[in-house]
Amino acid sequence: MKLSILDQAPISKGQTAKDALEAAVKLAQIGEDNRYTRYWIAEHHDLPGLACSAPEVMLGYIGARTNRIRIGSGAILLPHYRPYKVAETHHVLATLFPSRVDLGIGRSPGGSAEASLALSKNFLANVKEFPEAVDELKHFLANDFENDHMFSKVKASPIPVVPPELWLLGMSKKSALLAAEKGLPYAYADFMSEQSGGEIVRLYYDNFKLTNINKPESIVAVSVICAESTEKAERIASSWILWNVLAAKGEARDGIPSIAEAESYSYSSKEHELVSNIKRKMIIGNPKEVKQKLLTVKNSYRTSELMILTITYQPEDRWESYKLIANECFN
């Protein structure tokens, strides 16, 4: 079983954005030291508690401080940008860090309607044109436009020896079918989806169009918190759970709350229902419990790779969670 890391660069209460971004670098280094396959960092805009609005910038910083682990975006939100610029940026990264760069793309806004408007005035129209933008990006990455195409003489320079590996991210049948149609590997966000994920990923495999260079490949991203004991894992998870509850009410502007704040919070009956729903989408436990649950997810989805998202109040708890999982799964 391959394990990888999905990072949202969380900012905890009392922490600065710089602290959070430096913690992201440390996490990538821990991932490399503990045999994780990839480190991906997400793109968010004007969302309290999340520090990374420019994955391509962070990947240059992280790539220079790691040596082997694959690094990538999870995801670049393509409707905000022209495919040519995205290809150029990731070609620079792939030139600097050969055979290590992934380019994950998605079509969500990554923030509020106002943030989307500030980024791109035609976001909704661009979402409709997303399949065409994916094709354009593929051609810029492969440098293989047909001779009569308007961009046939345009290169997304520099051209790396090994191009970035393009992934489509999503959590719907629509995204699964698009990945299959375009012959792209597919990353499914189980931790965000309320749908039947197994059915969606199967739909991807069943509809994948084989080419002479591609085969179907999937990653399933799950939310996990691991600690030495189940009780400790539950305590650590309480701050992330409270942050989600506050976010649902529009009250999460101060970052990830502390464990003490989470334990003293008085939940309403309606909020208790929300907590139950949040925990159903999480894996929380000691190393043996987490490994068994990860294997269950892997077998359920028939995937070979799981990508783990872990958000905690203390960065040290997050780093330790990934170390414990790796030690249990790889040794």
From TrEMBL:
**Domain Luciferase-like span(s) in chain numbering:** 1-300
Record Pfam families = Bac_luciferase (PF00296)
State the superkingdom.
Answer: Bacteria
The record ties this protein, via NCBIfam families, to: oxido_grp_1
State the family it belongs to: To bacterial alkanal monooxygenase alpha and beta chains.
Q: Which PANTHER family match?
A: LUCIFERASE-LIKE MONOOXYGENASE
Name of the molecule in the record: Luciferase family oxidoreductase group 1
